[in-house]
Amino acid sequence: MKVIWRLEKATVRDVCEALREKREIAYTTVMTMMKILEDKGYLKKIRVDRAYEYRPAKPRHQVVGAMVRDFLDRVFDGAAAPLLVHLAKDRRLSKGDREMIRRLTEEIDE
Q1: Mind listing the pLDDT tens digit for each residue in 64-101?
Q2: Which of 15, 23, 48, 71 is surrounded by the fewest CB atoms within 10 Å?
Q3: Radius of gyration of the chain (CA)
Q4: Of 53, 51, 70, nearest to 10 (Cα)?
Q5: Alpha-carbon distance 73 to 56, whole Å?
Q6: Count: domains in the chain
Q7: Are residues 48 and 82 in the same domain?
Q8: 74 burial level (CB within 10 Å; 0-12, 13-18, 19+)
Q9: Looking at the structure, do residues 49 and 81 belong to the same domain, yes or no?
Q10: What is the DSSP string of 53-80?
Q11: CATH number for position 80
Q12: Which of 2-16, 39-53, 63-77, 95-109 has the lowest mean pLDDT?
């Protein structure tokens, strides 16, 4: 999704070439993942000449929110707290991040 958000529209080949700048990946793997993202409603495609051109189907914040909820459901049985605890213990959350979360939590409780 990051590649398509950056390019705004892309073919499977475009995405594959962009990903290959960082690591080796098979064309068929990219094609499969883009099909899954299309099936989930994150991408839409139109035929352009002999290839399909993919575009984001929803705004980035909606897609990220849906992906995070899906991840929480699959990995943490829908609970966000264990994820935050894991991130905090893994030092992925800076002091500023923890403070922001504290403030947001207090605002929700008010």
Answers
A1: 999 999 999 999 999 988 988 888 887 777 889 888 88
A2: 23
A3: 18
A4: 53
A5: 23
A6: 2
A7: no
A8: exposed
A9: no
A10: EEEESS-HHHHHHHHHHHHHHHHHTT-S
A11: 1.10.4040
A12: 95-109
